[in-house]
Amino acid sequence: MAAATTTSRRPDLRFLLAHPAHFIALGFGAGLAPVAPGTFGTLVAVPIAWGLAQVVPTLLIPFCAIPLFFLGWWACEVTGRDLGVADHGAMVWDEVVAFLPLAALASASPWLIALAFALFRLFDIWKPYPIKLLERNVKGGLGVMIDDLVAAFYAYIAFAAIIVFVYKGLGIS
Q1: pLDDT means per 10 residues in the chain (173 residues)?
Q2: CB hemisphere CA count around 122 (13 angstroms)
Q3: Minimal CA–CA distance to 83: which of 147, 146, 19?
Q4: pTM, whole model, 2 decimals?
Q5: Nearest in space to 135 (alpha carbons), one of 152, 154, 150
């Protein structure tokens, strides 16, 4: 790989395919989207959750995200180093892994997936405490991955609260 490609601040198809870590960190290419790469990265989790649900029980999918988190830690570490930017916006594996358990949980309905997606994107963009703090203070691949995990946790809490409120409000038992 040419040196200019290694330190590119704007990854391209060549960079994506130059190293397995790049392919993973850039969400199989979703991170190359010219606008809202995080949104496109989050969408990658939906077919992955569906595919995993074909081979494992839905409740085990969050556990599948654990090794994918560590894979992302490595991939984002390598890719950030090669891009020269520790937390480049094109690295979207953090969105994929963080949203995967929520996508599996919401998989019963396209409306639930849309709700979970909107909540995750809201918290990932808004970055309430301690997400901004983590983003500022935790560096490298772990720093890339960890803030989205917290955003997914907030989205899960909001998702569960909305579901309970709707079911209670509609008198569904």
Answers
A1: 51 97 98 97 96 94 96 98 95 98 92 97 96 95 97 97 87 67
A2: 13
A3: 19
A4: 0.90
A5: 150
